[in-house]
Write a structure and sequence with these properties.
alpha/beta; nine-stranded mixed β-sheet; Purple Acid Phosphatase, chain A, domain 2; 250 residues; eight-stranded mixed β-sheet; 4 helices
Length: 250
């Protein structure tokens, strides 16, 4: 795969078979990633699934970003939270995880949780039924209240993997915060898409939120984390993940 990725092609997607909560088998598009010797499945939605642990990880939901902007006079359609929760519900149904980790900045600001509608609170509560739920604190949401259910913590370590919000560059780290995106050329035009950034020892996850922006993987912030331009971008296409050397993106 070169930087001239055909995002709209009909190539078959890399995939895995999974059994959902109803016991039905389905094929899920995505690709496998290795981090510190652990194999994870990168779902096309931008989530990670660790099958051995039945662990689902999402990052940077930025719930209530639309209402945050509205308070400052920037009017956006107020449906981002519902859209993000809808996508999250779909990926939970696909993988039926035992544990979910929300990897920080789940809420766009310190008071965003207070603006959640009652129906959206009910949706979050339903996600948490019969599974463990871990909120990692982020820079946008350092004090998630206990009435949203789950456990709030700064980071979680499982085996060789440490899950935290802000990446430090440590081996075995899976983090978010930077909202990686890659710009590539496709069919004579450029296109930006969210991506996983990974070099086999550490990974930075894409933002999952509907209104979350992105930072180019060619930014100096990624060079600081990975220490080399030799890491890979696993770009979220329409039907598959495209693996492209970060150095070939622009």
């Amino acid at each position: 795969m070169t930087a001239h990725a055909q995002f709209l092609d009909d190539e078959p997607a890399a995939a895995r078979a999974t059994v959902d909560a109803a016991g039905a088998t389905q094929v899920v598009a995505g690709a496998t990633l290795a981090v510190a010797g652990v194999t994870l499945f990168a779902d096309l939605s931008g989530a990670l699934f660790w099958e051995e642990q039945r662990l689902l990880v999402v990052s940077d939901l930025h719930l209530e970003k639309g209402s945050s902007f509205a308070r400052r006079g920037v009017l956006l359609p107020p449906y981002d939270t519902l859209a993000t929760l809808g996508r999250l519900g779909a990926v939970i149904a696909r993988h039926n995880p035992r544990t979910v980790i929300a990897l920080g900045d789940s809420f766009h600001d310190r008071t965003a949780h207070g603006r959640l509608s009652a129906p959206n609170r009910d949706i979050i509560a339903a996600f948490q039924l019969r599974r463990d739920w871990i909120w990692i604190s982020g820079n946008h949401d350092p004090a998630i209240p206990s009435d949203l259910g789950g456990v709030v913590t700064q980071e979680v370590s499982i085996g060789p993997i440490a899950f935290r919000h802000e990446p430090s560059g440590a081996s075995g780290e899976i983090a978010g915060h930077l909202h990686p995106k890659a710009r590539v050329s496709t069919r004579g035009r450029s296109m930006e898409r969210r991506c996983f950034a990974c070099d086999g020892e550490r990974a930075v996850m894409p933002a999952f939120g509907a209104y979350a922006g992105g930072l180019s993987i060619r930014d100096a912030a990624f060079a600081k984390i990975f220490g080399t331009p030799g890491f890979m971008a696993h770009v979220l296409g329409d039907h598959r993940l495209h693996t492209i050397a970060a150095s070939r993106c622009y």
